Structure formats: structure tokens, C-alpha cells
């Protein structure tokens, strides 16, 4: 038998089964009872909160053969069954993300003049309507201004601010919101019971938090947990293991590291999480929620302003770099930025112990003086003088280079090759810079500023032979990284 996901299996088939949005559901049900539906609706809100489900229930309420236009469709007549099985010819669902052009809307306009085949109305559900092009919106607007009496439009979107005001003004708008824990947990408990599983309250809280109030996501997470659990009783420990949730103890340890402002320990900690396969983006979201809980608790380890600032930094960085595939890089940026926001950090950083580096490069190359001038008359000093300008040009083309080169130093120049050094603990950053997607951008920036093509090599330095004070360099790098001043 074909497998049906829990979300589809338990998708509401009548208005009584819809979780949340009681006021919206009540209003729509009253409209069905009075046969006074609008010709166009706009449903807005986060993903997975019931916008499309409600739209389909309207279609069922309009099309039921046994009960007529009703808020209690029978779910037994031919039309109700077809709608439940996604086979109803007069219910047309359009994904605007993949059908966003004016040609698709023109084709729709041509078809809407045809009378419904089996139902009383033709219902068009346009999902993610904000994805339509401007031309498509204008074409849709003309249809909404003078719609045929046998057509109902239901537009759904997660980003209403992108929809033309003229479109919104011609629709009856309903704003859906994320479900509360009580609303979501009631549905999850019902599903678990039907699937012969028992689940504790702590597990429900975790599933709800991971779903961000989306009923669809919560059910999908529950299905993953049920599929992976052989026990009849589902407990928090098994849910954390199945979902790859980072244990609370590690979050608490990281908060301790933030309090101690230990740059090296924090970097090593993030590397360990990454190497063990943990999701760093998920870790920082969990950290933000944990800090939120600390904010409202009596046990406060930071000032309230510090709590708020940390949460702001986490979501600000995640939003700015949402397309960055390297999540470990995001972790470094968030951690360094949290520390740099505290104006007392400069004192902490200046108290860092002197570190040692190994002058012996981990590559087969001869030692060459930094002042060596080669036949193109470029010297190390000339490069060093222009280095900040070179980096700014590179950063303007790929902002994530800032984090990649955060611990790097301009090491030497020899035989038309610039050597950039990284400390041992930044081997990951060195390896990333070797990739063409990063190295080519830096080499192009060098060529743009110095007007000459120069090769760049990236090397690791060890921890013996030469001692260097790195504390002032680190302070300067923090200031450069965040384009500000640490006092």
C-alpha cells in the first residue's frame, strides 16, 4: 500500500479539525452558512499554519453535493471525496513560485470564463502569490476587478508586503499566525495516540520549538520521531537523539565560554561541534531560545541588555548570511561578534597570553627576506601598505572572506608570490582559502589594486621557534572585522 505522510493522513477534512485560528474559521463558517462568500480572499501568515488547508475546506463547503453550500461538508459525496484526493476538476491550485509569469496568468484568464464542470464554483488557489511578476500582478488585478460570478480566488502568501496594494484592496484579508503550544500539542497528542504512541510533555515542547509554530512542520517532525523510535513511549532523550539536538549541557558550556570571553576555547568548541556532525545554525537558534528563557528567569548571568544583544546578533548574522552554505563560518562570525559587542572586550583581549608560532612553513619553500625586491619592483612593504585596500576590494565581492581571513596575516612576498599565514587552529580557514571560489577573489583584488598579477599561497604556522605577540594584531582585526572601534 502506498505510504501516506502523517501530515496528509491527518490533514483536516472539516473546519472542526483545524488547529488554531478560531476567529478566522468562525468568520468563514458564518459566510458559508449565509452563502455570502467573497469573490477573492487573501490568506497571509507563516508556512504550515493552515492557509491552504482552509482554502481547500472553503472549496469543499461550496462544492458538497449532499449538504449544499455548507460549513459542514459531508466528506462522503463524490465532490468531497475528489477534493480530499486532490482530483476535483473545479479546484485549481497554482504554485506562483513556478508559474509566476504573465503568460500563466493570461492562460488562467482565458479558462475562468468556462463554467464549473462538477461544482457550484470554480475555486482558484494561488499559493505564494507574492512570487508573481509585476506584469502578472497587473494581469491578475484586472481579473479581480471584474471576476465572473462562478469563480472564487484564494491567494495565499508568507510575504504580504510584496503584494500590490491594489490587489490587497480587492480581497478579503485574513492574517494567520503561528500556532500556540497548547494548540499544536493537542493535535500532536491526538496523532500520537492514533499511531499507538505515547509522548511526554518535554518531547512535545521540543517538537513545538523546532517547528516554530508550524503545524505542518510539527507533524513532519513527529513522523520522523515515530518512524525512528521502536519504543511505545517517546521521551525527550530519544527525541533529542533522533533530531540531532545539541544537548543542553553544551549550550550551557558555550554560555560559560562567552562569559569568560575566551576566543580560543570558543573556536575550539565550535570546531568540535562541527566535527561531530552537529548543525551549527540549529545550535545558535537553540542558544537564542535558551537565552530567551534565561532572560525571563530569576537566574540571570548577564545584564538584560546583554541577553537582548546576543539574541539580536544571532538572528542578524543568520539573516545576513542565510545563503552562506558554510555553517561553521556562520558560527565563527556570531561568536566573534558577540564578544566584540562588549566594550570591555578590549581589556580581556589585551590580557591574552603571548602565543608562539612556528617559522617553519608547512610547505616546501625557502626562507626569503620580507624586504626582497624582485624584478617587477614590488616589495613586501608596498603590498603591506596597500593590504587594507586590497582586502576591502575583496570583501566587497564576497563578504564571507572577512571571516575566512580573520586570523590570517600577510606573511611574506617572494618571487611574485604572496604568502598568507594562518595559526594552526585556523587550518579550516586556510583550507577554505585554497579553494578557487575564495582565492580567485583575493587574487583579483590584488591585481586591481597593485596593477600586477600576483599568485597567493596560504600556509600554516606551528607553535615553536619564534615567539610573537599576537594580542595587538587580534584587537586590530576585531576592529577591522566589525568596521568599528572597541574601547
From TrEMBL:
Which keywords annotate this record? Answer: ATP-binding, DNA replication, DNA-directed DNA polymerase, Metal-binding, Nucleotide-binding, Nucleotidyltransferase, Transferase, Zinc
The role this protein plays is: DNA polymerase III is a complex, multichain enzyme responsible for most of the replicative synthesis in bacteria. This DNA polymerase also exhibits 3' to 5' exonuclease activity.
The reaction(s) annotated as catalysed by this protein in its Swiss-Prot or TrEMBL entry are: DNA(n) + a 2'-deoxyribonucleoside 5'-triphosphate = DNA(n+1) + diphosphate
Q: Does the keyword ATP-binding apply?
A: yes
Cellular component, GO, one term: DNA polymerase III complex
Q: Which family does it belong to?
A: Belongs to the DnaX/STICHEL family.
Q: Does the keyword Nucleotide-binding apply?
A: yes
Residues forming the AAA+ ATPase domain are 37-179
Among the GO molecular function terms of this UniProt record, one is: DNA binding
Subunit-structure text: DNA polymerase III contains a core (composed of alpha, epsilon and theta chains) that associates with a tau subunit. This core dimerizes to form the POLIII' complex. PolIII' associates with the gamma complex (composed of gamma, delta, delta', psi and chi chains) and with the beta chain to form the complete DNA polymerase III complex.
Under Enzyme Commission nomenclature, its number is 2.7.7.7
SUPFAM superfamilies documented for this protein: P-loop containing nucleoside triphosphate hydrolases, post-AAA+ oligomerization domain-like
Q: Which Pfam families match?
A: DNA_pol3_delta2, DNAX_ATPase_lid
Q: Superkingdom of this entry's organism? A: Bacteria
Name of the molecule in the record: DNA polymerase III subunit gamma/tau
Q: Which GO terms describe its biological process?
A: DNA-templated DNA replication
Amino acid at each position: 500500500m502506498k505510504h501516506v505522510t502523517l501530515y496528509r493522513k491527518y490533514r483536516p477534512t472539516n473546519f472542526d479539525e483545524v488547529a488554531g485560528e478560531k476567529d478566522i474559521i468562525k468568520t468563514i463558517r458564518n459566510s458559508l452558512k449565509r452563502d455570502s462568500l467573497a469573490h477573492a480572499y487573501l490568506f497571509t501568515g507563516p508556512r504550515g499554519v493552515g492557509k491552504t488547508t482552509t482554502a481547500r475546506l472553503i472549496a469543499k463547503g461550496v462544492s458538497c453535493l449532499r449538504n449544499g453550500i455548507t460549513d459542514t461538508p459531508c466528506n462522503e459525496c463524490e465532490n468531497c471525496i475528489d477534493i480530499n484526493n486532490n482530483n476535483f476538476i473545479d479546484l485549481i491550485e497554482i504554485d506562483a513560485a513556478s508559474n509566476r509569469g504573465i503568460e500563466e496568468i493570461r492562460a488562467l484568464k482565458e479558462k475562468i470564463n468556462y463554467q464549473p464542470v462538477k461544482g457550484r464554483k470554480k475555486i482558484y488557489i494561488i499559493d505564494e502569490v507574492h512570487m508573481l511578476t509585476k506584469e502578472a500582478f497587473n494581469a491578475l488585478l484586472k481579473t479581480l476587478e471584474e471576476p465572473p460570478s462562478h469563480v472564487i480566488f484564494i491567494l495565499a502568501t508568507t510575504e504580504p508586503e510584496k503584494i500590490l496594494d491594489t490587489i490587497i484592496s480587492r480581497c478579503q484579508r485574513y492574517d494567520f499566525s503561528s500556532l500556540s503550544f497548547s494548540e499544536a500539542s493537542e493535535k500532536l497528542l491526538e496523532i500520537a495516540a492514533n499511531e499507538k504512541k505515547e509522548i511526554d510533555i518535554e518531547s512535545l515542547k521540543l517538537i513545538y520549538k523546532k517547528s516554530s509554530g508550524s503545524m505542518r512542520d510539527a507533524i513532519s517532525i513527529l513522523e520522523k520521531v515515530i518512524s525512528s523510535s521502536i519504543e511505545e513511549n517517546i521521551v525527550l532523550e530519544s527525541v533529542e537523539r533522533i533530531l540531532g539536538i545539541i544537548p543542553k549541557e553544551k549550550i550551557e558550556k558555550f554560555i560559560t565560554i562567552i562569559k569568560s570571553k575566551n576566543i580560543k576555547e570558543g573556536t575550539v568548541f565550535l570546531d568540535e561541534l562541527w566535527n561531530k556532525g552537529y548543525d551549527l545554525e540549529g545550535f545558535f537558534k537553540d542558544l537564542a531560545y535558551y537565552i530567551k528563557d534565561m532572560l525571563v528567569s530569576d537566574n540571570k548571568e548577564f545584564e538584560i541588555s546583554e541577553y537582548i544583544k546576543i539574541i539580536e546578533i544571532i538572528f542578524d548574522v543568520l539573516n545576513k548570511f542565510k545563503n552562506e552554505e558554510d555553517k561553521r563560518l556562520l558560527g565563527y562570525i556570531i561568536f566573534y561578534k558577540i564578544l566584540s559587542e562588549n566594550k570591555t572586550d578590549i581589556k580581556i583581549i589585551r590580557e591574552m597570553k603571548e602565543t608562539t608560532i612556528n617559522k617553519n612553513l608547512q610547505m616546501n619553500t625557502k626562507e626569503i627576506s620580507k624586504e626582497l625586491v624582485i624584478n617587477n619592483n614590488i616589495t613586501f612593504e608596498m603590498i603591506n601598505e596597500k593590504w587594507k585596500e586590497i582586502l576591502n576590494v575583496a570583501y566587497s565581492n564576497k563578504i564571507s572572506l572577512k571571516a575566512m581571513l580573520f586570523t590570517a596575516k600577510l606573511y611574506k612576498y617572494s618571487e611574485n608570490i604572496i604568502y598568507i599565514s594562518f595559526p594552526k587552529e585556523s587550518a579550516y580557514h586556510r583550507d577554505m582559502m585554497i579553494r578557487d571560489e575564495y582565492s580567485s577573489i583575493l587574487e583579483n583584488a590584488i591585481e586591481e589594486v597593485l596593477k600586477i598579477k600576483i599568485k597567493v599561497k596560504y600556509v600554516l604556522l606551528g607553535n615553536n621557534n619564534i615567539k610573537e605577540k599576537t594580542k595587538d594584531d587580534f584587537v586590530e582585526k576585531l576592529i577591522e572585522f566589525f568596521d568599528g572601534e572597541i574601547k
